[in-house]
Amino acid sequence: MIHDIHRLDAEIRLRPATPADAASLAVSLTRSRAYMQPWEPVRPDAFYTEQGQRPDNVASQRVLAKCGFEQYGMAPRYLHINGEWRDHRLFQRILHDGPLTG
């Protein structure tokens, strides 16, 4: 962990956050979020989600199928796991039947 305090100018110091900073950071985040809200993009309800599974993980693929996911492709050498690049089957679930309404 870095414990250095960096002085940016006479009044501003930069240091790593600590657990003691949590309350004031939460207040600052809430205040910033409220201020920025008018500029937030409007996002529709979730309409799409995807999942990747290794081909040998048949049990998880069954769970995805029961939850309405469909396989739509393969991603060769998708993730580096246990020292090797592993292929993954790609699954998706689209949660709408028509255009998004916002």
Notable traits:
102 residues; alpha+beta; three-stranded antiparallel β-sheet
In short:
By secondary structure, the chain is an alpha+beta fold. Helices cover 24% and strands 32% of the residues.
> How many beta-strand elements?
5
Q: Give the uncertain stretches in residue-range form.
A: none
- Shape estimate: flat
Task: Classify the secondary structure makeup into a structural class.
Answer: alpha+beta
How much helix is in the residues? 10-25%
Largest sheet, spatial ordering of strands: 3-5-4
Number of distinct helices: 2
Main beta sheet: 3 strands, antiparallel
- Report the span from N to C terminus: 44 Å
Gyration radius, in Å: 22 Å
Task: Classify the beta-strand content into a percent band.
Answer: 25-35%
Mean pLDDT, all residues: 84
Order of helices and strands: EEHEHEE
Task: Note down, in words, how this protein is organized.
It contains two helices and five strands; from the N terminus they run E-E-H-E-H-E-E. The protein has a domain at 48-94. It is of the alpha+beta class and 102 residues long. Strands 3-5-4 form a three-stranded antiparallel sheet, with helices on one face. The protein has a two-stranded antiparallel sheet with strand order 1-2.
